[in-house]
Amino acid sequence: VLEEYDGRVRLVFKDRPLAMHTLARPAHEAARCAGAAGKYWPYHDRLFAAQPAFRRADLLAYAGELGLDRDAFAKCLDERRFASDVERDIEQAQALGINSTPTFLINGQLVIGATSLEEFRSIIDKALQERR
Amino acid sequence: VYYSSIGMVLALLVLTCSPATSRALAQVELTWSPSMVKGAAGAPVTIVEFSDYQ
């Protein structure tokens, strides 16, 4: 979608680790540690490719694969430096009644679940028309 | 929904609903880290994805 609608669509990723997924929260915090080192999206993609291998050793290994400083990354992870940021995303999701993933807001329109590309195109095209 | 990035309010949409969900949303200010955004800052359409890595 980002390639197809280049310049007209942007994507914001929000953390919504579900309580039942016990390994998810450290993974979300790790991604933010990678983001602080300028590698948020590569790490994000690595996590999705590797799920659910999210033990501490796994998270450190992915950081190493991406050329991140392992010691600095481990410190960030162990200090839980971004725990409150992840929690803030969860609180915002809960305030919106978002309790399943993935859930999308497309210019404010709620889209729940893994939606087809055609459906995304339809909603985006309508949003673009409304902005003209 | 207020979209906000580090203190800057970008848009205001309240009580939106989709045909698929037909559910009104609460009024909530959303904040995000610039590192967790892909695409042009001035893009007319913003997709906010709430997701879980696991």
Which strands sit side by side, in order, in the main sheet of chain B? 2-1-3
Main β-sheet of chain B: number of strands, strand sense, barrel status?
3 strands, mixed
Percent range for helical residues of chain A?
Answer: 40-55%
The fraction of residues in strands of chain B falls at 35-45%
Q: What is the residue-mean pLDDT of chain A, rounded to a whole number?
A: 96
Characterize the quaternary organization of these chains. heterodimer
Largest sheet of chain A: 2 strands, antiparallel
In which range does the helix fraction of chain B lie? under 10%
- Largest protein interface, residues of each chain: A-B, 59 and 37 residues
Structural class of chain B: mainly beta
State the shape of chain A.
globular
Mean pLDDT of chain B: 72
> What are the low-pLDDT stretches of chain A, counting only 5+ consecutive residues below 50?
none
Spell the H/E element sequence of chain A. Answer: EHHHHHEEH
Strand order of the largest sheet of chain A: 2-3
- The secondary-structure element order of chain B is EEEEE
Radius of gyration of chain A: 16 Å
Beta content of chain A comes to 5-15%
Give a description of the structure.
The complex is a heterodimer of chains A (132) and B (54). Chain A has helices at 24-36, 40-50, 56-65, 70-79, 83-95, 117-131, and strands spanning 9-15, 103-106, 109-112. Chain A is mainly alpha-helical and 132 residues long. In chain A, strands 2-3 form a two-stranded antiparallel ribbon. In chain A, helix 1 runs antiparallel to helix 2. Chain B is mainly beta and 54 residues long. Chain B is 0% helix and 39% strand. A three-stranded mixed β-sheet of chain B has the order 2-1-3, with no helix packed on it. In chain B, strand 1 (2-5) and strand 2 form a beta hairpin. Chain B is extended. Classes of the chains: A mainly alpha (132), B mainly beta (54). The interface between A and B is large, with 59 and 37 residues. Strand 1 (9-15) of chain A pairs parallel with strand 5 of chain B.
